[in-house]
TrEMBL record, chains A, B:
The lineage of its organism: Bacteria, Pseudomonadati, Pseudomonadota, Betaproteobacteria, Rhodocyclales. Belongs to the SLC41A transporter family. It is a multi-pass membrane protein. This is Magnesium transporter MgtE. The keyword Ribosomal protein does not apply. It holds the Pfam family MgtE. The chain crosses the membrane at residues 349-370, 391-413, 419-440, 452-479. Its main location: membrane. Residues 170-232, 234-292 form the CBS domain. The keyword Metal-binding applies. Acts as a magnesium transporter.
Amino acid sequence: MNTEQELHPDDVQQHLREVQALLARQKVAEDLVHRQDMPRHELVENLVHKQHEAALRNKLDTLHSADVAYILEALPLEERLYVWDLVKAERDGDILLEVSDAVRESLIETMEPHELKAAAETLDADELADLAPDLPPEIIQDVYQSLDTEGREQLRAAMSYPEDSVGALMDFDMVTVRENVTLEVVLRYLRRFEELPDHTDKLFVIDRDEHLMGILSLESLLINDPEKEVSEVMRDETVISFSPDDPADDAAQAFERYDLVSAPVVDRQKRVIGRVTVADVVDFIREESEAEILSHAGLREEEDIFASVWDSVKNRWAWLAVNLVTAFIASRVIGAFEGSIERLVALAALMPIVAGIGGNSGNQTITMIVRAIAMGQVKQSAMQRLLKKELGVALFNGVVWGGLLGVLTWWLYGSASLGMVMTAAMTLNLLLAAFAGVTIPMLRQRLGGDPAIGGSVMITALTDSGGFFIFLGLATLFLL
Amino acid sequence: MNTEQELHPDDVQQHLREVQALLARQKVAEDLVHRQDMPRHELVENLVHKQHEAALRNKLDTLHSADVAYILEALPLEERLYVWDLVKAERDGDILLEVSDAVRESLIETMEPHELKAAAETLDADELADLAPDLPPEIIQDVYQSLDTEGREQLRAAMSYPEDSVGALMDFDMVTVRENVTLEVVLRYLRRFEELPDHTDKLFVIDRDEHLMGILSLESLLINDPEKEVSEVMRDETVISFSPDDPADDAAQAFERYDLVSAPVVDRQKRVIGRVTVADVVDFIREESEAEILSHAGLREEEDIFASVWDSVKNRWAWLAVNLVTAFIASRVIGAFEGSIERLVALAALMPIVAGIGGNSGNQTITMIVRAIAMGQVKQSAMQRLLKKELGVALFNGVVWGGLLGVLTWWLYGSASLGMVMTAAMTLNLLLAAFAGVTIPMLRQRLGGDPAIGGSVMITALTDSGGFFIFLGLATLFLL
């Protein structure tokens, strides 16, 4: 039963190890490092152990495109390109769809126009649309010319929708039936198919003008008496359908909430124009959360871990620049109190604590509020209630942690008043953090912006500068 | 076609608004705030506008359990409990499964034992197992007693698997067939069903000892000639199956990679014991990324946005405590240089910049490395290569941003040497951040820990203390 194991998840890494072993054996890496500038076909000529190359090629042929993609992502550039060269040309399209954007670029850069065109022509309209942004326009043009009218229509449609819309997730392969036929007829009709589209769990019931009348699940097709008519067993109430302009995120939430496998997409006249499958939704969900996690650390996009230093720098500099500015502002706030610090240098050692804890606590608040807003569960009217709660939490933490630090400060510097300033400053900064953590995303939303973007940077900037100002300010007022 | 709209994603929020409107009209909120201590049935008695209550009950009855759950999450406690009271008892179980953990607790707290038991009894073994952690043990016992032998067997099995294993995602409803029968027989067999299990896209082909022989997709059942035997059309190679002990994350990756809808789970003897469906996988993926995003901000779990101040404090204090400790250490590092700061107070204003930028850059590195490790694409052997790259990026940023700040410092304080110290300190701290960003997760992994947990805290602590030490140290050496 080891065929059973063929696609077992653990085995991708097994496959990866095998490929790496084969690569190592023929010292490809070294071989290539010295020949980077040489065209790829020559490279291949130059390789020593042909039999290893054959073994590698065979290995790759047995692998699912997604696994090849996984392996390509895990290989350093020169080995990646060498392996890419061994992959059967007709699989290029599928694999390009599977790899991460960064890796896709690295592969496309090395492909000849005719290779790219050939790869593109193996894809469906919706897949092509996903790939299009990374392809040179002239390739798209060529492929477009080579399509039939329907294909061109679909490609134009697929490319016309914004990235995060249902239209961008939509594919065009679906099976439609009429409501006035018997299940027997449907069963016979299906037997004429070579294969059904992936994730076909339901057939779309349409009238002669392609209006969606309801859905016939394969389940009801199978469990009902074949003599029955489609109209008797189809579901026409509570059919979930989307418009191509719906936000993809709404579709994703609906798929999650109602456990869908596929759903029809209809135009304004309720004509069926495509469908969304759970596979697309899963990819979308994964990409969304990836993007969110990366953006928290100020990475613009997922990085090819073997990207050049320069590519990485480009991916990261914007966030560093922003933080540099906010840090500089905070530094000027301190600068304004240099006189006080000169007279009581302990302030310099204590101020980062006040700023830091404020930032942490503020990020906790804003993270929670942003998530609640994203779920659409927070109305503006709830703001006051949330504000009260968050301020309560902040006050509690201020008194407890601030108090603790006040005592520590007293003990360290033997000054009760300095300790009290410490406690007061921490409490005030925590209150500031809570206030900002609730209001920033709420205002963002009211102003129609995305409440998530950059909130963490803003609140950290505020609690840094604010923390320094409050602490040094109080100290100047009461201690000097 | 507004029935079509019934479940349209946007409408959940529409439903929510309607419910809130109904609640508002009868001033439930106020009504209840004053009666918090009164038992719930009395509360309901006391409510003024009975007709609004009826309207509300009807509204709730038309809604999908997932939508009711969504609404409950979005309501403040007292309104939530009031609505919860109006929901048909037989739906309690489904809805408890759908709500977030925090909200689930708030609902279960208010339920009588007999209500809980009734709710639990409406659930399948695998659903019950998901709910079990939140239920009082005696309830579980009662329900367990009420089950038949198979049910008990399944419940025991479902509860025996660790949270992040395939066994925990597994359900027990599946359709199995023998390989030596014709498709016609299978079709007739299926017509005997009232309904098929959710997400049945394939039937599991087993021998008389329940060993998995292959899978018969509904597709091949439908497109092939009914005279054919199952064995002729079933897939027995590259059948993806899982063991209940596999990490759930492997299963999730396999579902994503191979676009699965359902997959069999087999024991060591390859006997089919259950299956995993894409619905469970989608929920798992969402929860995983939720948890990751929350943990970045140091939130232990998703918070009921209307939780009491005290609950929130409990959810957040641990992270604040850790950060307090690290901040305190950083403060002591500064304390060690108070002498230098006294003589050159500008240092106090500049040091936070060095520390802050180091932290940001370090978090970018560690985030990227952790993700690559999680995908299993980084071998320990790649460490050197990654280290070289990250150090390269750090050096570049150090020279560019550090240089820029050096000039700014020079201009601000009119001291070129101070500017040079600034540049050097930033470069060194960025190098430190890059080094830690690569090595911390790598070592974590080698030591068999989770590379993700707390990495961000560690690196920030390091770049804070390290940044202060490097900057103040260099200044002490070269400027004083």
